[in-house]
Amino acid sequence: MTKKKMGLEDLGGFVFSTNDDFDENELTDNEQQEALDPEDQDLEAHFSNKGRGGKTVTIIKGYVGPEEDLIALGKKLKKKCGVGGSTKDGEIIIQGDDREKIMEILNKEGYKVKRVGG
């Protein structure tokens, strides 16, 4: 009867990276990103209703910085527009087609915002 293999050590010491300079900290690069100043950000305001059961949303893309700052910006936009939404995958999703209002708010905060689509 053979011994059942239970872990990576039992598989013969595989080397998963051939790069000798591999740094595990590179994998968490997004968390360590520094936030750019608002005037250096190039944001895009998109309108979408695909994949949402016909409901319209405004999507803000292009933010560069830590996830916590993106969440705070999303929260501020939702509060000023008086609507719901979420922040995920580096995008701020605001319920409804409030692109003009959102672009105005972001411009007052110092962000450069470009209207994309429709």
Structure description:
Belongs to the SUI1 family. InterPro entries: DENR/SUI1_TIF, SUI1, SUI1_arc_bac, SUI1_dom_sf. This is Translation initiation factor. By secondary structure, this protein is of the alpha+beta class. The chain has one domain: Translation Initiation Factor Eif1. Helix content is 22%, strand content 22%. It has a five-stranded mixed sheet, covered by helices on one side. The radius of gyration is 21 Å and the shape is elongated. The mean pLDDT is 81.
Could you give a quick summary of the protein structure above?
By secondary structure, the protein is α+β, with helices and mostly antiparallel strands.
Topology:
Elements: E1 42-48, E2 57-61, H1 67-81, E3 85-88, E4 91-95, H2 99-109, E5 112-116
Parallel strand pairs: 1-5
Antiparallel strand pairs: 1-2, 2-4, 3-4
Q: CATH-wise, what's the superfamily?
A: SUI1-like domain
CATH class: Alpha Beta
Radius of gyration (Å): 21 Å
- Strand composition percent: 15-25%
* Tally of DSSP β-strands: 5
**Helix and strand run:** EEHEEHE
CATH level-two architecture: 2-Layer Sandwich
Strand pairing plus helix content: what structural class? alpha+beta
Q: What is the mean predicted local confidence, pLDDT?
A: 81
